[in-house]
Design brief:
homoserine dehydrogenase activity (chains A, B), eleven-stranded mixed beta sheet, Dihydrodipicolinate Reductase, domain 2, homodimer, Alpha-Beta Plaits, six-stranded parallel beta sheet, 17 strands, 3 domains
Chain lengths: 436, 436
C-alpha cells in the first residue's frame, strides 16, 4: 500500500492475548499503516506446540517453534509468552540486536526490569510494557509522559482483578470468602493455583512497576510489603459496609519521608478500608483502577478492564504503534528511567490509619485503659464505637478508628492491646486508606 | 547545570494557569532538565498589564507587553491568554517560525484547529493541547497514543465542571436549579456570564476536540448538537434519583452508522440520565471524567480535576516536556490528524433511549392509546410506570422508558404524544445514555 516501507514484527506466544494481537495486526493493517507511516508485517508467531488450538484462526505458515531465529530478523518483538525464561533471553537477544520490544510480562519486569532497561538503553532501543499493569488501562504512558512536569506523590491501584472480584462479591452479595473464591474460580477469574492472586504476589509485581515509573527508582519486588486477602472474613466485610467503607486489595506506591527525615519510596500491597464515596470504591467485579495523586494535578483516576485477551491486546497495540512510529521518525527509544535512585523505606515508616476491632470485658474503666494504651504509643483515636454485646452482658465489642500515625506505632499499639488488661481479643485490624 | 543546552520558553498570559506554569518551570528547573536533557529557560511572560496582581510572585523582569517580539526568539511557546485574537495570530506566528506550541485554548482549537494543525504540519512543529479538555486529566494523549492500535467507538465525557457542580448539588442536596447555580456562582464555579457553561457551549467545544482526536475527523463546533441544562428541574432530578439514575451533562463523540448505511461521526452535548452504578455517576462536584469505549480495550474511564490553576498547569507541563524532548531527540512534531474525514451525521441518526414523563387522563384505554403512538413510530417501551395521581382522581402521571431507537423516531414520538388523545402534557423528556 502506497509504497510504505515494511517493519517486521515477531510475535512470541499465542495465548489469549497473543492471538488477539495477531488478529488486530492482520485485520487493521491498512489503518495501522496510515497511522504509523510504515506497514507492519507479522513475520511469524513463535509457539511451543504448532498444533495447540488458538482463540483466533490464523495462517498456519506464520507459526514456528524457533523463537530465536524469528527474533533475529525482527524490527519489533512482541513478547507474550510469560514466565522468566526463555522470555528473558529472547528479549535480551532482541534488544541487543537493536529491535524494539513490547511485552506484557509483569513477572519478568518485576524481577529483571533494570537489566532489560539497560540492555535497551545501550543500543537506543525501546522497551515498552503498558499491558503489564492493569491490562487495557493506559496508565504507564500517562504517568511517564502526561505527568512528566508534575510531582507524583502517591499511586494507589486496584490492579488484581481476581481478588477484586472476590472482595466485590463478598461486599455486594454477602458471600463468604470461600463462596466468593469458588465463583471466581468457576468464572475463570482465578488460576488453578490462586496463591499468586490471593496472597498479593501479582499485585506486588505491579506495585514495583508503578513505583519505578512514578518515582524513577528501582523497587525490587522483595522490597514490596505484601499482605494478601486470605485473612479477610465476611464479618469484616460486613462491618466495613455498615461503617461506610469497602475493603479493597490495594497496591500502593508512595513518596514518604521517614521519621528520621529520609526522603524515600514505599511500595506495599494490602487489603484496606476505602470510604464508599472514594472513586476506587466504585470499581466492581474484575475491573482495575489506578488512583494517582500529584502535586499540581491533584487526584486522577484511570479505570478499565484489568484482564482479557482483546483488552490486553489493545495496550500491546498502543505500544507497538509507538515503537513502529519511532522506527519511522527516528529518535532514541524509551525504556526505564531509574535516575532518582531513592531509598526504599520499610512499611513501618508509612503514615496510615488503623481500624481496630476488639472484644473487651464490659467493665467500668475499660475505655480509659484502652485510651491509655493508644496514648502510650502516640496514637490517638478518631472514633470509638461500642457495638452490641455478644453472647451476654460481660463482653462488649469495640471499633476504634485511629487518626493517621506511623505504621510502626500503630502496629505496636495493636500488639499492646492484645495483651492489655480487660481486652479479650483483637478481632480485626485493617488499614484505612485514601482518607486524609 | 551539566552543560545542558537551553530551550527558550515564551509564556503568553499569566492568569491562574499561567502563573502556576511559570512557577513550576522556575521551581522544578533541575528536575525538568534531567527529564528532558535540556534546560528550560523562561524567556518572558507576555501580559496586557504589567501591574496586574498575580497568583504567584514572579521576577518582574520576565514580564513584557510585547508578545510578538517574545514569540520571535522562542523554541516553545505556551499560549494561555484564551480568546481567539491575538492568540490565533501569535500561535500562527510561532508555528511558522518553527516553534512548538502548547495551548489550553479550547475555544480557539474548536474554531480554528484545522488551520493551526496545518500550520504546524507545514514546518514539522508540534501543537499540543492536553489542558484544553478536562484540565488535569490526561485524556488526549491516551486517546491518540495508547489507543492508537484500537478502534474507539464512543467517548462520553463530563467535561464542564460548573454544570456538574450544579447538577450534583441538585442531586445530592435536593437544591433547586436556582439555588444550586447561586452556590456555584458564589464558589467561583460559574463565570459572570454563565451562558457558556449552562447552555453547553463550553462542553461543545470540548466535544469537537474529543471527536476530532478519537476519529481523525474535523468536527466543526457548529456541527455539535447542543442542549444545555437550563431546562432541568428539581422535579426531574428527584424523579431520576428515585428511578436509580442521575442527570449529567454529557459531551458525546461517537462512531455511528446512519439509517441509510453511511458510516460517520456524531458529536453532541445534552443532559442525560445515567444509571447510578455507571462509573460516570460517581463524578461529583466540579470533577470531570471521560468514559471511553473501544473495540478491543472495552470500557475505560479517565477521572480528575476539570479546572484549577495548578491542575491545568500540570497538563501544560506534560505537553511542554514532550515538546522539549522532541527538540532534544528530533523527529517531527505531533499536531492534529484529520485523515479519516468521516461525515458528521445529524443528531437524528443517533441511537439512544428516551425517558418520557407525561400527565394523562386516568381513563380506561389510555395505555393502549399511548402504546399505539409508540408503535406507529417504531419505538417500543422498555418500562411503563404509573405514579400517584396528582390533585385528584382524573389524572395520572406516567413514566415511559423506551428501548434504544433512532433519535429522529423518538423525537417524532414525543411530538405525537404531545397532541395525542387523553395526554394532558409531556412533563419531561430525557435521554438515557450508557445503558446497553
Amino acid at each position: 500500500m502506497n509504497g510504505y516501507r515494511d517493519l517486521r514484527v515477531a510475535l512470541l506466544g499465542c495465548g489469549s492475548v497473543g492471538a488477539q494481537v495477531a488478529r488486530l495486526i492482520l485485520e487493521h493493517g491498512d489503518e495501522l499503516a496510515a497511522r504509523i507511516g510504515a506497514r507492519l508485517t507479522l513475520s511469524g508467531i513463535a509457539v511451543r506446540n504448532l498444533d495447540s488450538p488458538r482463540d483466533v484462526e490464523l495462517p498456519r505458515e506464520l507459526f514456528t517453534t524457533d523463537a530465536e531465529r524469528l527474533v533475529q530478523g525482527a524490527d519489533i518483538v512482541i513478547e507474550l509468552m510469560g514466565g522468566i525464561e526463555p522470555a528473558r533471553a529472547l528479549i535480551t537477544q532482541a534488544l541487543q540486536g537493536g529491535a524494539d520490544v513490547v511485552t506484557a510480562n509483569k513477572a519478568l519486569l518485576a524481577e529483571h526490569g533494570p537489566e532489560l532497561f539497560e540492555a535497551a538503553e545501550q543500543v537506543g532501543a525501546q522497551l515498552s510494557y503498558e499491558a503489564a499493569v492493569a491490562a487495557a488501562i493506559p496508565i504507564l504512558r500517562p504517568l511517564r509522559e502526561s505527568l512528566a512536569g508534575d510531582h507524583i506523590t502517591r499511586v494507589m491501584g486496584i490492579v488484581n482483578g481476581s481478588t477484586n472480584y472476590i472482595l466485590d462479591r463478598m461486599d455486594r452479595f454477602g458471600d463468604s470468602a470461600e463462596d466468593a473464591a469458588r465463583v471466581a474460580s468457576e468464572l475463570g477469574f482465578l488460576e488453578a493455583d490462586p496463591t499468586l492472586d490471593v496472597e498479593g504476589y501479582d499485585a506486588a509485581q505491579k506495585a514495583t512497576i508503578l513505583a519505578s515509573i512514578a518515582f524513577h527508582t528501582e523497587v525490587p519486588v522483595d522490597a514490596v510489603h505484601r499482605e494478601g486477602i486470605t485473612g479477610i472474613t465476611a464479618a469484616q466485610v460486613e462491618a466495613a459496609k455498615s461503617a461506610g467503607y469497602v475493603i479493597k486489595l490495594l497496591a500502593i506506591a508512595e513518596r514518604i519521608t521517614s521519621s528520621d527525615g529520609v526522603d524515600g519510596v514505599s511500595a506495599r500491597v494490602y487489603p484496606a478500608l476505602i470510604r464508599r464515596d472514594h472513586p476506587l470504591a466504585a470499581v466492581h467485579e474484575g475491573k482495575n483502577a489506578v488512583f494517582v495523586e500529584a502535586e499540581a494535578a491533584g487526584e486522577l483516576m484511570f479505570y478499565g478492564a484489568g484482564a482479557g485477551g482483546a483488552e490486553t491486546a489493545s495496550a500491546v497495540l498502543g505500544d507497538l504503534v509507538s515503537a513502529a512510529r519511532r522506527h519511522v521518525v527516528g529518535g532514541p527509544g524509551i525504556a526505564g528511567s531509574l535516575h532518582a535512585e531513592l531509598p526504599i523505606l520499610p512499611v513501618g515508616e508509612v503514615n496510615t490509619a488503623y481500624q481496630i476491632m476488639l472484644d473487651v470485658r464490659d467493665e467500668p474503666g475499660v475505655l480509659a485503659a484502652i485510651a491509655g494504651v493508644l496514648a502510650e504509643h502516640g496514637v490517638s483515636a478518631a472514633s470509638v464505637e461500642q457495638s452490641v454485646a455478644q453472647g451476654g452482658g460481660a463482653r462488649a465489642s469495640l471499633v476504634i478508628g485511629t487518626h493517621v500515625a506511623r505504621e510502626a506505632d500503630l502496629a505496636a499499639t495493636v500488639d499492646a492491646l492484645r495483651t492489655a488488661d480487660r481486652v479479650l481479643s483483637v478481632t480485626s485490624v485493617l488499614r484505612l486508606e485514601g482518607a486524609e
